[in-house]
Each structure stands twice: as structure tokens, then as C-alpha cells.
Amino acid sequence: MDLVLQLLFTGIGIGAVYALVALGFVLIFRATNVVNFAQGEFSMVAAYLMVVFAVDLGWPYWLSFLLALAGMALLGAIFNLGVYYPLRHRTFLPVIIATIGASILLANSVLAIYGPQPQVLEGWFETPGIQLGSVYLDSQYLLIIAVTIVLVIFNYWFFEHTMLGKKLQATSQDKEMASLLGISVSTMIMITFIYSAVLGGLAGILVAPVLFVSIQMGSTIALKAFAATIIGGFGDVAGAIIGGLALGVIETFGAAYVSVPYKDGFAFLVLVAFLIFRPQGIFGERVAEKA
Amino acid sequence: MSAPSENMPIAMSTVRGKPLLVRHLPYFIAAAILVALAATMQFDGYIHNILMQATTFAIAVFGLSVVLGLCGQINLAQAAFFGLGAYAVGLGTSDYHLSYWLCLSAGCVLALLAGALLGMSTLRLGGHYLAMVTISFQQIVTLVMINTIWLTHGPDGVPRIGRPDLFQSSQSYLAFCVAMLAVVGYFVWHLSDTRLGRAMRAVRDNELAAGVVGIDVFRTKVFAFALSAVLGGLAGGLFAGGFAYVSPDQFSFAESVVFLTMSLLGGVASPIGSAIGTGLLILIPEWLRFLKSVPGLYLAIYGLSVILIIRYMPDGIWGFVNLATGRWRAKAKVRAAGPALQLVPATVGGDTVLEVKGLSKYFGGLKAVDGVDISVRRGSVHALIGPNGSGKTTTLNVLSGLYKATAGKVVLDGTDVTEMPPHQRAAAGLGRTFQNIRLFRSMTALENVVIGAERPGNGLIGEGEDALNARAMSALTFVGLGNRANELISSFSYGHQRLIEIARALAANPTLLLLDEPAAGLNSSEKLELHELLKRIAAQGLTILIIDHDMTLVSEAAQHITVLNFGRRIADGESLSVLRHPDVVSAYLGTE
Questions:
Q1: Inter-chain CB proximity B296 and A272 less than 8 Å
Q2: Residue A283 domain-assigned (yes or no)
Q3: Which end of chain A is more exposed for a tag (fewer CB within 10 A), N or C?
């Protein structure tokens, strides 16, 4: 029973990271109808920025954190201008191929600059964790869960109760109508990319102390996050979060009770099971193309 | 009514002279020369390895030109399929001492099964699912290669891989691989002009329209995907024999990216492009070896190339060359016009061609169509009218199977089609056009209409390509565009595109033709032509169900009118009396 609780905690912690990245996926998908395959690389780049600022340059953790997020905002903007925007009138296939190209470019540029050696990033807190009964609560996992809860609430407030959030929603639902109402669609898409890059970056910075900072962390996280969006129901915000948490828990239990080397395979098995038996996910994808 | 066989021989003699094999003789001669060169020229080991790699990689990239180029579906796991073939040959010949041929076949079958399973679980869904699932599959295959050490030797890889007795020397084995490349290249080159290839291109250009003209979209995609996987497996098996040693890192996601880049760079639509892309991306890295000293730099450049190619050269090098040389090449000759178009609608059921009972379509709480009855008499022109948002197009979409009915029954010529997907309804005799024209935009007018003529269940078509072409020419000539058959869709005006869409439906010899606002967007002279065309179609006894807003057209063309408002039928009957019906007048003009 103790082990079960311990695994549940770890699973939710890691699942929260998937949920954050999945959220970034969903926001871009809703705004542009495109799946951004470089979403995971946003996390990886942010983690490396943290290593550069906090470890190599020895700057304070909070300053490094803010600088890394600012860097991600910049990367999101460049990504939009360099990859998505020139192709916005093309069909979906060229766009996803371009985002795959961008993902390869980002991962391997970091590899070329920083080398293949995984890096270590300390956690935010000095204290490693707290013992609660028989369960050990790692402080970094606690932080991840707390930040995810805050962000989910912020996200809800932002999209439902601010003018900017409503404009973003209008853009994602009907670009033509939004532009007729005087909303600048290209600005809204720009904001979406920046916000998603920051979200992905945040996830990367939070998870970095738990994993090693490595080139592969981006694609690993992205695959899980994508599986999470499918499990939750493509394009659904609540679905992405619940799917992410579920996947984190499944994977942690799978690693503990079945096999460690194949840990990354469980996401795929769950994904295929959903594709076959419930492709619309838990909450259902908004589909139907008009003839 | 004449039997189809009577017309066909005439067309055949005018369209094509020489049999297929003779026309393609130059290809086979060139291939034979290449094989002979590979078998006799003395290369040093380094050049030999490069040739070996290029030959086998090109076969794998051909696979991508089928799935991505022809069918428009992405495959980011080609290196995994390549790896399945390579490991089958590697492990089979070295650890289990099985025959090379048996192992090569097993590798192909393994890749085929994996490809078919992946495709069947994913291809009903949107393309982003396929991209992610293939990446996941790629990761799993790599995980298994590294971790199941008892089977795969793990990261150490598989040494001492065997070759067939017949091709023991590296020289003869290279010649064998070149021969395989030539054979596979021939099939891939020709695939696009076969029925399956046309179906793939139709699916790539417009999935909805492909289903409506009778193509089983899902099956076509699975075929394309499985074919691509088999070519990957075959290439991998050949590769393993060529290098005698394989290890997991040769089949990683990075290699899938390399295959994708090769295919995009050369031009994804054609095997010639694939060969160019493969050759370049094997040679260029050899020239720029110094870049390899920095890990990652190489793939970073590949990633950047992918972005740049997609943006600036979407059709790749070969597409670019084709475009640039297009103006000097001779225009394809316009085929001789086929015999006058015959429409022989099937007559299985009784007097009623279409019987719709209690048809409903709800979108959540919105009742777009609510308990509608329509009965279309054989040989009549029946109009479905109503104000905007009354549910006309939704009705048509439910009739052609694009939407699933919430309730009700649709019987076409005696067959209950309520539960059928679009392509089966097409096979049962349904033809349609779209309000917002849906043609296969990368093809010529003739190819579009040929795909229509290929409708399963079209009994008017004889065997062979020539019969199809003749039928398509007849249909194009019928709508007045026979002399422009070989032009691309984009060069036609909006009105002419509508006519091509009608020709595509007519070539299929449907039992019932659904026309969704055919007059929308036409100018007044085009409307007159359309009216004439409708008369000529109706004169051949084809039953038509038409939606339109043009009351002159509707009242003159249709004998029978059904009126919808807010998803419900408000009037039905003989044209003139329906148009005077008070409910209809108030629905259109409002009440006082």
C-alpha cells in the first residue's frame, strides 16, 4: 500500500509535466489547426538555458528562471515567424513536416553546441523533500504539482475572463469572423506560440532536476504529451491535463511492476489502445469537416 | 442502348499504338546496362559501399514516395521498417542459418504486417495522429533492438550476415541490388497510372471527393502505408546482406528523418526525385565529412533543409526541374474524342429511385434535418429547395454518406444504403457534385473524370485503360470540354470546373445524380449552358436530385419540388403548385 501511494505521487508529479506540455500542444492546435512537433524541444531548450544561466554562469536561480522563460518567449516568436507563418495558407501536411524539421534542427543544434553529455540541474529548494507518514514527498515533485495547479487555474481565468483570452478563443474558433470583428489574427497566433513556448519551457525547467537534462528529453516528453492529448480527447484542454496525469501514473506503475527499460513503451501501448477502441479520447475530439 | 463492347475497339486503336512493354523498352535497356555495369566495373571498397548504400536507401525512399508522395500520408518510421527487414536477414542468416531468400521474404512480411497494423489502427484519424504514432513505433522498435539482447544482441549488433549463394561476391550482390532497384522503381513509377495509384492521388488531393466517387479511402491509405513499409523492409534486407553487419543505431529515428529529407529534397511525388534525393544526401555528406566531427551538426542541417525545402521548393528538385523544362516539352496530345456519352442508369428497383423516410440529422441539440421524407421518381428531375440554413446541403451530405443519419432510412434503387460509407453508396449507383467544387486539383481534367469512370459497379466500362479513357473523353466532350482534357484543373475557370465535376459524376454512369447548387457562382450565360446540359442529361433518362437557389432554373428544370425549412419538409409536390403554396411563399418572402 505504501509503495502504491508513493508511486501514485511520483506518477502524478511526472504526469503534471506531460500535462503542461500537452496544454501547449492543444493551445497551438486550437489556434492554428496544426500539431507542433517541436513542442517537446521547447522544454529541452529551456532546460539547457537554465543549465547555461544557473550552472555555467552561476547566476541566481530565480534570475536564470526568468531569463530562460524570456528566452522561450523569444524562441516561440521566432518559431512562429520562421516555421508556421510562411506556411499558414498551405495544407496541414507541409506545416507538420516543417515543425518536424524544426524539432530536429533545435535538438541537434543544442547537441552541436553542448555535446551529448547529459547535464545536471539542481532543484529549486534546498530541502530534498518531506516525509508524510510512509510516503516521501520529493520537493521538486511537490513544486511541479503546485505550479501545474496554479497554471490550470490561471489558464481558465485567462481564457474565460480576460478580453485577450476571449480574443484568442474567437481566433481559434473562426479566424475569418475574428478578423472581421477587428481582431488581429496574426497577433493572436503570435501570442499563442509565445505562450505555448513558455508553457513548454516551464515544464522543461520543472522536470529538469528530476531527469537529466539531455537532448532526448524533448522528444520523449513530446511523445508522452501527444499521447496524453489523444487519451484526453484531441483539442480539449481538460482532456490534455487529465490525459497527462493518467499517463504519468500508468507509466510509473508500469516501470515499477512490469519493466524499467520499456517504461517509454507504455505510453505507446496506451496510445494504440485508445486509437483502436476510443479514438476520440475521454472527452471527445471536435470533428466533422463540412462538405 | 448499345453494349459497351461495340464502342471500345475504335477508341483503342486511335489512342494508343504500341503495347506497354514496348513503350517502356528504353527503361529496361537502361536498367540492364546499369546492372551490367555494377556487375563488371571494378570499384574500390569505399565507392562500392557508397553505391550499396545508395541503392538500398533508394528503395526505402521509393516507399516514402508512395505513401507521402502519392497518397499524402506521413511515415516517420521508415528506418524502423528498414530495420525490421535488416534484422530478419541479419539474425536469420547468422544465428539461425536460414536461407537468405527465406529471411528476406520474412523481413518483407514482418514489415508488411507491422505497417498494415499501424495503418489500420491510425489511418481513420487525422494525419497528425499518424505522424505521432509512427514516431512512437520508431522509438519502440529501437527500444526492442537495444533491450532484447537474447534475440537481437542488443547494442552490439548482428555480425556475419549471410548472402545468397548465387551472389556471394560483393560485386554480384551489388548488381543484384541494382536489379531490384530497377524492378521496384519500375513498379513505383507506374503505380501512379494504375487504378490503385489514381485512388491514392485522389485521396491525397481530396478525401471527401474520393469517397464520394467510390474510392475506399481507408483501404487505399492502408495499402499505401503497407506498401511503403514493405519497400522499407525489402531495402533493409538487401542492406543487411550488403554490409554483413547491422546495429540498432543504423535504424534510429534520425535515419527516418534522413529518409524523409531525401524524399523531400528530390521531390516526393516521383521515384526519379527519390533517386536524386537519395544520391545527393549520400554523396554530399561524404564530401563534407569534416562536419561529422561535431555531433548533431549534421542532423541540424538536415532539419533546417526540411524547413527550407518545404517553404521554397515544395516539389523538390525533380518538381523544380519539371516545372522549368515544362515549356519546352511537347504538350501531351489531346486524345481522340470518344463515342457520344451513353447514360444507362441501372434499373433494379421499381418506379422510385430514391426513397427517404423520416431522415434526421442532429448536431448536438441542433436539428439540422428533422424527419424529412423524399421520394424521387425514376427518370425525373426533382428539386430540393429552401431558404439558407434550411438543411438542404446537410440532407445531401447524409444521402451521400458524409454524415451519419441520426434516424431514418435511405433506400437507393431498392438497396438500403442508410448504414453504408460514401464509397459503397457510389458503388450502389449514387453520384454527386459539391457546392464548393471538390476536384482532384493536382490532376488533369481527364484524370479526374477517369477516376469517376472507375466507379465500382459501373457496368458500362470495358476492360483496360483505353476503355476508361474513352469513357472519360465521352463525358468531357458531353460537357463541352473534350478539347481541353489534358489541362490541369487550376487552368480552368470556376464555371468549367463545375462542368468537370459534373462530367466526373456522369462518367460513372450513376443511377441517381445529386447536384448541390450547380448554378452557384455562375454568370448568366453559364447558367443557360448549365440549363441546356441538365436537359440533355435528363433526356437520357438519368434521375436527378438538385438543390439550387435559382428559382428560374428550378421551376423550369424540375417536375417535382420538395421544400425544406428549419430542417422540416413544409411542402412537396408538382413544381408550379409547390411554388404557389402559401407556406413556401412565406418561408421565402416572410409573412405580413
A1: no
A2: no
A3: N
Q: Which residues pair with B374 in a beta bridge?
A: B356
User: In the predicted model, is pLDDT for residue B348 greater than 80?
Assistant: no
B396-405: average pLDDT: 92
Question: Which of A32, A36, A93, A106 to substitute to test the interface with B, most B CBs within 10 Å?
Answer: A93
CA dist B546 → B213, B552, B572 (Å): 18, 13, 14
Helices (H), B294-385: 297-312, 316-325
Measure the CA dihedral B209/B211/B216/B221, to 10°.
50
Chain B nearest-CA residue for A277 = B121
Q: Output B59 or A168, whichever has higher pLDDT.
A: B59
Interface confidence (ipTM) of the complex: 0.84
Number of domains comprising chain A: 1
Residue that is written with C-alpha cell 495499402 in the block:
B223
Q: Is residue A17 part of a domain?
A: yes
3-state secondary structure of B159: coil
pLDDT at A194: 94
Q: With 90 as the cut, is the pLDDT of residue B106 above it?
A: yes
pLDDT of residue B438: 94
Chain B neighbors of A276, CB-CB under 8 A: 121
C-beta atoms of B303 and A106 within 8 A: yes
The residue of chain A with its CA nearest to that of B315 is A94
pLDDT at B13: 36
Mean per-residue pLDDT of chain B: 88
- CATH homologous superfamily for B352-589? P-loop containing nucleotide triphosphate hydrolases (3.40.50.300)
pTM of the predicted model as reported, rounded to 2 decimal places = 0.86
Contact check, Cβ <8 Å, A104/B140: no
Decide if pLDDT at B5 tops 80: no
pLDDT value, residue B203? 95
pLDDT of the residue at B333 = 63
Most confident of A196-200, B123-127, B363-367, B466-470: A196-200
Q: Provide mean pLDDT across the span B571-588.
A: 84
Contact A192, A76 (CB under 8 A): no
What pLDDT is recorded for position B1? 37
> A114: how many CB neighbours lie within 10 A of its CB?
18
Mind telling me how many Å the CA of A105 is from chain B's nearest CA? 4
Residue B229 near residue B81 (C-beta atoms within 8 A): yes
Please tell me what DSSP assigns to residue B365. Answer: T
Which one, of B114, B65, B108, lies nearest residue B234 by Cα? B108
Domain ranges (residues) in chain B? 41-253, 352-589
Nearest to B188 by CA among B319, B55, B66: B66
CATH code for position A242 = 1.10.3470
Distance from CA of B212 to the nearest CA of A (A): 11
User: How many beta-carbon pairs below 8 A join chains A and B?
Assistant: 138
List chain B residues with CB under 8 Å of A87: 310-311
Tell me the nearest-neighbour CA distance from A93 into chain B, angstroms: 8
The whole domain housing A36 covers 2-277
Q: Do A93 and B136 touch (CB under 8 A)?
A: no
Mean pLDDT across A184-202: 91
Question: Looking at chain A, how many residues does it have?
Answer: 291
